[in-house]
Design a protein that fits this description.
alpha/beta, 242 residues, 12 strands
């Protein structure tokens, strides 16, 4: 199931779920540039570029987020997890919510303490009421084009990570966390980009006021910044151009 690379062990080993996607693939390359070793959990390894699969710093595990055994195996040696995955075909079964419900236990068993989960700006967090353009798009285009169940699934992820505690803030943040059985919490952050375009970089993103339009390159770089930013732990953060 897993192809192990020569990954050594300096503590910076990132599991990416969604590594064949637009954001995940860019996060993978960016993580390598920043000195991370990477495990990619993918359903189809051949969708990864040849140079990535051949990189000794990369471990490729075959499986999906609905396969608990594959997730457990992929977590070995990892210190952090980045998730940017969707499952349109099974959204009604809430695969992301179910995955995140089980993930903290698997992370604790394997010594991984940091989680960054990419959600979306149209998925509300506990206690939040969508307004303006986000409310309009959630109740029009998202429903017309069949994204409602996916958004509901993401909201289930939010509820799970928040421990069902309400408390939204104006900047998109809310306190919360998932405690570990041994008393050590999983340090999670949920990122909430809106519309992401395949364009050259428009600049540097920071956590703060939401920019409606961003690029995949910029969101990936910002996601890696969030991964190292302990001030975002237990929060839902929007990306905005500095």
């Amino acid at each position: 199931m897993a192809q192990r690379g020569n990954n050594g062990g300096d503590g910076r080993w990132l599991l990416i779920i969604g590594a064949t996607g637009q954001t995940g693939g860019r996060v993978l390359r960016g993580a390598l540039d920043r000195g991370w070793r990477v495990t990619a959990l993918v359903r189809t390894p051949t969708k990864l570029p040849d140079d990535v699969r051949g990189d000794p710093r990369v471990t490729v595990c075959t499986g999906s987020l609905t396969d608990a055994g594959a997730v457990e195996a992929a977590l070995r040696c990892c210190s952090a997890v980045f998730v940017a995955a969707v499952d349109y075909m099974r959204a009604k079964e809430h695969p992301l919510t179910n995955f995140v419900a089980a993930l903290p236990g698997a992370m604790r068993r394997n010594g991984a303490g940091r989680l960054v989960f990419q959600s979306g700006a149209l998925a509300a967090i506990p206690g939040e009421e969508l307004r303006g353009r986000r409310w309009f798009l959630r109740n029009s285009f998202a429903k017309w084009f069949g994204y409602e169940e996916q958004i509901v699934d993401l909201e289930g992820v939010h509820a799970t990570l928040s421990g069902l505690e309400p408390g939204a803030c104006d900047d998109g943040g809310a306190p919360g966390g998932v405690g570990a059985a041994n008393g050590t919490p999983v340090r999670w952050t949920v990122t909430r980009p809106w519309i992401i375009k395949s364009r050259p970089s428009w600049g540097k993103l920071v956590s703060g006021e939401l920019s409606m339009l961003t690029t995949f390159d910029d969101v990936a770089a910002w996601s890696l910044d969030v991964l190292d930013d302990e001030s975002t732990v237990g929060r839902y953060v929007f990306p905005g151009y500095a």
